[in-house]
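Checklist before submission:
- one chain only
- standard amino acids only
- sequence pasted in full

Submission:
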Amino acid sequence: MVVEMKLYIEHANITVDNIEEAIRFLKTAFPFFRVRGKGESETGGIVRKWLHIGTDETYIALESVSASDTGTRKPYRDNGINHIGFVVEDLESIEIRLDAAGYKHSIDVEPLPFRKRSYYYDGGGIEYEFIEYLSDDPKERNRYA
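Returned file contents:
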């Protein structure tokens, strides 16, 4: 018998071109986020800055890029992270702050009766999804057909 356990994602670790810009985006969306810790690490002779930004329970680990490479990855087609999703209580306030700060929507989404969603790119091209659920019923919150 498999017992379902309660869990949550503690953190996501992403590499960014500009840590300060990533901090600005995340603090615009979530003004209560704080830098929990920061430092430098060395891998293969390359020193990179890193930091953790979020709350005591959950955070985003940011690492500076070690080599600039525009690459050929196509989101939603090639291997890699497509976006990071946050469940929020007040989507409209986040949209107002991000729009006022000049951040752009990445895609338009179909309106659904039990959830609202917005997708934004940060200043480095990383996509984030913000979801406000309007129901506690998983069958209403999620649409699979």
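Reviewer check: Residues 11-65+82-141 form a domain with the 2,3-Dihydroxybiphenyl 1,2-Dioxygenase; domain 1 fold (CATH 3.10.180.10).
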